[in-house]
Design goal:
With 406 residues, the chain is α/β, with parallel strands linked by helices. The protein is 37% helix and 17% strand. The protein contains 14 helices and 15 strands. Helix 3 (64-76) packs antiparallel against helix 11 (295-310). Bound molecules: pyridoxal-5'-phosphate.
């Protein structure tokens, strides 16, 4: 089958609108090609991608080494299911554990599934290891969290739109304000098995918690024998200038969920990482996924991790992140309340009277920059980690007039 199409953006948008469920409101840009930090629409216009597919494309679009791994593995053997073994999975496990320092991996596909895996592991650990009475396990999460869209995951969301109309919800979750360690301490009971937290809330609006918050959460979890689960699906794998955002505070969670950039954007690959004690609660048949840990995913994941490290993308996220944040702050726009973030996960929060971030994102699109509003008032700038100083200079020349316009 030939995938190339001669249809215009307008015609392709009409097809999407007619035949597809309207569960997104995308910018009206129809992309057909990508390379590094750049993408092109079907009319041939070029854009700097400042979303990176919500950080799934940290390694840049269509990275040649990851692409080669995909093509070679696809030609050899895409899927076995876990009913049989394959020659990529063990290597993927080993390389992931050696890179992250965790003892065990449970591979899945989407981020939400990795989160579900972490929650299932925590509950079973609670019953089998901690000794919580059956059916009584409690998990604490934070207001403003985002962890995906399954019914269990939205059951602990504080966002009305993510929940409304989708009940009844999975019980067993409690919410505490993000960044408030005292509230966490007060919420812990003898039945608490886990605290799940994003080290920086991405979808919540690039919210960076106060210094020391994760360290205190770590201490509280240790003291009360509660698993600390860090959802690093968006913040992990270099985005914030460290392998994991928790590394900024020297915090080692008991469980980490990763996804998104684990494939460099080629394929859904996610995982829960933890110890033998925690992931050891799963016995054959307890949990699984037809595609989880398939050889294509494993080969892609191996290559995605390799290029992240060998091409020093995490180091680049540190220097380019600092530079991008500085240049954004220098614009001194009357609409901007704050520029914040870590590494290349940057949020520009607008004042409420600026009329929302959407119009700014649309104006940026016209000038060749793709960014997406997160919540109503925040523009997120999260380009691929391969961005250069010259790319940022190019972007600032276009972002400045948009932020300075009335
Ligand atoms: C994107 C995201 C998820 C969900 O990942 P999906 O692949 O969309 O299911 C979970 N947690 C965080 C922090 C995310 O940013």
């Amino acid at each position: 089958m030939e995938t190339f199409t001669n249809l215009s953006s307008e015609e392709l948008i009409a097809l999407e609108d007619r035949y597809g469920a309207h569960n997104y409101l995308p910018l009206d840009v129809v992309l057909s090609r990508g390379e590094g930090v750049w993408v092109w629409d079907v009319e041939g216009n070029r854009y700097l991608d400042c979303l990176s597919a919500y950080s799934a494309v940290n390694q840049g679009h269509s990275h040649p080494r990851i692409r080669q791994a995909l093509v070679e593995q696809a030609a050899r053997l895409p899927l076995t299911s876990r009913a049989f073994r394959n020659d990529q999975l063990g290597l993927f496990y080993q390389e992931l554990c050696e890179l992250t320092g965790y003892e065990m991996v449970l591979p899945m596909n989407t981020g939400a599934e990795a989160v579900e895996t972490a929650l299932k592991a925590a509950r079973k650990w609670g019953y089998e290891v901690k000794g919580v009475p059956d059916g009584q396990a409690e998990i604490i999460a934070c207001t403003g969290n985002f962890a995906g869209r399954t019914i269990t995951v939205i059951s602990f969301s504080s966002e009305p739109q993510y929940r409304d109309g989708f009940g009844p919800y999975t019980p067993g979750f409690k919410l505490v304000p993000f960044g408030d360690a005292d509230a966490l301490e007060a919420a812990i009971t003898p039945h608490t098995v886990a605290f799940i937290v994003e080290p920086i809330q991405g979808e919540g609006g690039v919210v960076v918690p106060p210094d020391g918050y994760l360290r205190r959460a770590r201490e509280l979890c240790t003291r009360h024998n509660v698993l600390l689960i860090a959802d690093e699906i968006q913040t992990g794998l270099g985005r914030t200038g460290k392998l994991f955002a928790c590394d900024h505070e020297g915090v080692r969670p008991d469980v980490v969920t990763i996804g998104k950039a684990l494939s460099g954007g080629f394929y859904p690959v996610s995982a829960a990482l933890s110890s033998r004690e925690v992931l050891g609660v799963f016995r054959p048949g307890d949990h699984g996924s037809t595609f989880g840990g398939n050889p294509l995913a494993a080969a892609i994941g191996r290559a995605a991790l390799q290029v992240l490290v060998e091409e020093r993308m995490i180091e680049n996220a540190v220097t380019m992140g600092e530079y991008f944040q500085e240049r954004l702050a220098e614009i001194n726009s009357p609409h901007v309340r704050e520029v914040r973030g870590r590494g290349l996960l940057i949020g520009v929060e607008l004042k409420p009277e600026a009329g929302g971030a959407r119009r700014f994102c649309e104006a940026l699109q016209e000038r060749g920059i793709l960014a997406k509003e997160t919540h109503r008032h925040i523009i997120r700038f999260a380009p691929p980690l391969v961005i250069t100083r010259a790319d940022i200079d190019w972007a600032i020349e276009r972002i400045a007039p948009v932020l300075l316009a009335p």
